[in-house]
Design goal:
The protein is of the alpha/beta class. The protein has a single domain, classed as 3-Layer(aba) Sandwich (Rossmann fold), CATH 3.40.50. The chain is built from 7 helices and 9 strands, in the order αβαβββαββαβαβααβ. The protein has a 7-stranded mixed β-sheet with strand order 3-2-1-4-5-9-8, with helices on both faces. Strands 6-7 form a two-stranded antiparallel sheet. The chain is globular.
Amino acid sequence: MCPHCGSLERHRLLWLYLQRSGKLHARPISVLHTAPEPAIAERLRSFPNIRLVSTDLSDDDVSVRCDLETMPFRAGAFEGIICSHVLEHVSNDIAAMRELRRTLAPGGWALILVPNHDTRATTDEDASVTDPDERFRRFGQRDHVRRYGMDFFDRLRRAGFMVEIHRVGEVIPADLVVANALNENEMFADCSAPAATG
């Protein structure tokens, strides 16, 4: 955590990538921000071309309070989606991924980040594990319900996304990796929906 602004590594990575990718500087777009990080949301609101819609299951300080597994938005409602460190908390992550894909417009983008454990091939999950201490031991945090492996990216593809897998050190310059205390080996998904045809 940054002692000055309170940002975590994943917040710095997300903002650096959003800036460098050009995703925010396009035409007017609607962006869905799930479990919004306040610092990221505040910066997104500063863009006049962005209509920001935030959602969370338990936080009242959002645009729409809802479950990711059954969202009330129409199909193709958003040109951009930000979902960072949320899916490891969701009971049915496959349903949530399908909902995210359903609400993404043709040609839209979705940045989907989860705690990264790239040495693990398959996801460790067990719905019978409800003890917070055992969840901490198995999944890394007391309110996590799984620890993702490399098959995370295949889950996104099965939900209908086109998936580009990025390694931080390949998309963020080395000086910024060091200055922002990022893990150059961390991987994340830059997803998209196929463009409309015809």
